[in-house]
Amino acid sequence: MGKLYLVPTPIGNLEDMTFRAIKVLKEVDLILAEDTRTSGKLLKHFEIATHMHSHHMHNEHKTVENIIKRIQAGENIALISDAGTPAISDPGFLLTRACVENNIEVDCLPGATAFVPALVNSGLPNDKFVFEGFLPDKKGRQTRYLALAEETRTMILYVSPHKLVKTLAEFIQYFGADRQVSVSRELSKLHEETVRGTAEEVLRHFEAKPPKGEIVVCVAGKTISKEKRKDDE
């Protein structure tokens, strides 16, 4: 029986590609890529000639069964996303679950993931945190905010640049204008930037300077009063 490799790819800086990731991608029988055009540039840069198939959110339900059969027949297959670690707000969960259910070995390599550096450099507590990924666009968005308003751990979200100002305004509405926020964009790239401050301060910054690029937002959790903490104890 073959094996499934989950291989992280750089989130911007190609120097973040690991030697092991290159070795695995060169040795496997097939690479599953979220976008073969995007991944094709990466493979060309590292002189990786392994054949690719498309595997993305629109076809993964249909392709999983065939991939499982190929691995069971002895093929080693690697899964990559456009950037970062597969299955983190990208395709990968369905295939990984299917492999586990079929007793197929899954090996996830360590590597680039956008939310980790964003959390670490935010200056917000990182001993406990919750990763929310992308919030719902419409249905369920308010419900999610109402739940997160009571969250005491640092919250991590992925936000598209054209929705950042709206999202920061929603933070003020649901969390309060003084809630601490850290916005990291273009991590590992030439124009990397992290803006920290209250929700109101960060909103004003990006109203004046419309954001571009990939964005990770960290939000401080709700502060528990000393009286409430004593009651819980």
TrEMBL record:
Gene3D superfamilies in UniProt: Cobalt-precorrin-4 Transmethylase, Domain 1 (3.40.1010.10), Methyltransferase, Cobalt-precorrin-4 Transmethylase, Domain 2 (3.30.950.10)
Annotated GO MF terms: rRNA (cytosine-2'-O-)-methyltransferase activity
GO CC field: cytoplasm
Residues annotated as domain Tetrapyrrole methylase: 3-202
Keyword S-adenosyl-L-methionine set for record: yes
Cell location: Cytoplasm
UniProt xrefs under SUPFAM superfamilies: Tetrapyrrole methylase
Enzymatic reactions: cytidine(1402) in 16S rRNA + S-adenosyl-L-methionine = 2'-O-methylcytidine(1402) in 16S rRNA + S-adenosyl-L-homocysteine + H(+)
The entry's keywords: Cytoplasm, Methyltransferase, rRNA processing, S-adenosyl-L-methionine, Transferase
Group of enzyme by EC: transferase
InterPro entries referenced in this protein's UniProt entry, alphabetically: 4pyrrol_Mease, 4pyrrol_Methylase_sf, 4pyrrole_Mease_sub1, 4pyrrole_Mease_sub2, rRNA_ssu_MeTfrase_I, SAM_MeTrfase_RsmI_CS
EC number, as in UniProt: 2.1.1.198
NCBIfam families: 16S rRNA (cytidine(1402)-2'-O)-methyltransferase (TIGR00096)
Similarity comment: family membership: Belongs to the methyltransferase superfamily. RsmI family.
Role noted for this protein: Catalyzes the 2'-O-methylation of the ribose of cytidine 1402 (C1402) in 16S rRNA.
Name the record gives this protein: Ribosomal RNA small subunit methyltransferase I
Record organism: Flavobacterium amnicola
Organism classification: Bacteria, Pseudomonadati, Bacteroidota, Flavobacteriia, Flavobacteriales
Gene: rsmI
